[in-house]
Amino acid sequence: MIGDPIIKTISDRLFETSALNNVVEKLGTNSDISVAVPISTRPLFIAATFARSPSSMLVLTGGEAAADMMVRELRQWLSSEQVLRMPLYTHQPWREQVINTDHIAQVGQRNQAVTSLQRGERKIVVASIEAILRKIPIFEAHQRRLLVSVPQGGDGESASGEDTTVAATTAATAAASAVAATATAA
Q1: Angle subtended at Cα 79 by Cα 50 and Cα 77, rounded to the nearest 5 degrees
Q2: What's this model's pTM, rounded to 2 decimal places?
Q3: In degrees, to the nearest 5, what angle opens at C-alpha 63 toward C-alphas 51 and 3?
Q4: What's the per-residue H, E or C state across the chain?
Q5: Closest among 89, 71, 90, 91 to 81, alpha carbons compared
Q6: Contacts of 58 (CB under 8 A, 6+ apart)
Q7: What is the pLDDT along the chain (186 residues), one digit of tens a residue?
Q8: Smallest Cα–Cα separation from 50: which of 81, 87, 8?
Q9: β-pair type (124-128, 165-168)
Q10: CA–CA separation, 15 vs 48, rounded Å?
Q11: Pairing mode, if any, of strands 165-168 and 146-149?
Q12: What span, in angstroms and rounded, lies between the C-alpha atoms of 148 and 173?
């Protein structure tokens, strides 16, 4: 059951046009779509699309505040059970910090959202771009020592019999590759 009966009426009227009806038809074939909609009407358009053709949807926003606002606005048209929030996971396991109840709640919400998408449940999951990206630690140059092996002549030793392993202090693999290329050329 769609949250508010009025959204069904709005959806029927909105999708009477052939251009917008094509959007719903494409969703019915499980195809990905991108539609440009003015910012003020996006929640209404998403809710109307969902009301017309309930399916698993992922709505991405530019930030956490925008995602929170989108969820609030979608829940005005649809039921709370149909709109899930995938929050940003703020705990950084590579740093020393205490795990609190907010982190545990975030894991639960994220798990519910991802599970819903994996199962293809008829729900809308709203997330910021940052929330769906995997967070990895950033190592500064003084925190990481990367060893790059640069074999010369195919046996790992130079003409003088020395080991050609180059110690490169870097934070990026690309920089290590540049060091390796320079050592090989020398």
Answers
A1: 60
A2: 0.64
A3: 20
A4: CCCCHHHHHHHHHHCCCHHHHHHHHHHHCCCCCCCCCCHHHHHHHHHHHHHHCCCCEEEEECCHHHHHHHHHHHHHHCCHHHEEEECCCCCCCCCCCCCCHHHHHHHHHHHHHHHHHHHCCCCEEEEEHHHHCCCCCCCCHHHCCEEEECCCCCCCECCCCCECEEEECCCCHHHHHHHHHHHHHC
A5: 71
A6: 117, 124, 125, 127
A7: 455 678 888 888 888 877 777 777 777 776 777 778 888 889 998 999 898 888 889 999 999 999 999 999 999 999 999 999 999 887 666 667 676 777 778 888 998 999 999 999 999 999 999 998 865 555 554 444 444 444 444 444 444 444 433 333 333 344 444 444 444 444
A8: 8
A9: unpaired
A10: 9
A11: antiparallel
A12: 10
Identity of the amino acid at 58? L
And the tokens for 167?
A: 């110690």
Token pair 């769609």: residue: 2
Structure tokens at 4: 């508010």
